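Q: Hi! First time doing this. I have a protein sequence and I read that you can turn it into a structure. Is that right? Here it is:
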Amino acid sequence: MPARPRKADAWKDAGQSRDEQFAAKRAALIRKAARAFSARGFYNTSLDDIAAELGVTKPALYYYVKNKEEILYACHLISNELGTQAMTFAESLPGCGLDRVVALARRYVELLTGEFGASAVLMEFDALQPENKKTIVAGRNRFDRRFRSLIAKGVEDGSIRKVDPKLTVFFFMGSVNWMTRWFRPDGTFNGQEMADRFADYLQESIKARSNQT
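A: Yes, that's right. Below is the predicted 3D structure, encoded as structure tokens:
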């Protein structure tokens, strides 16, 4: 039972000013909810469950979110933003196309596992409202186009073998999405180790070889 007061204290201590408190508490709510959704499933987790995890009452949550779908949408928005951050980082680096693609892979997994513990809630796309789906799909498509472009540039400069950029992106993102189903921060591998391994696997699968095209 001592864990509950610590959760409540963490909730109360979030931020300093009113705006900082609101932002920090909402972020804490989303992180906690995302992990609860991953553990139990989106449809099997209630706002009552989330409130209990935070050590607050359910009505207190309605000051920060309207419903569960808003939390789910926020998780997807954050995931899209993390992808944008990773992409911008990779595109700014010197080096060949392969270097940038590998840097993107590593940075994206680092950010994703650090923010959510690779929350499986990101797979719960069909639960979003139609307008929210459109927003998330638009963000994913922008990321997809930039990712394919990095791969294509690597093929052009000879650092990446002649792979299909579209299928390569599907291959990598499919692996990342599946990782969200089983990864746990306290598991066999931490987030940094997962990022290093995923980057290594991608690099070994697409790098140019003297005897392979």
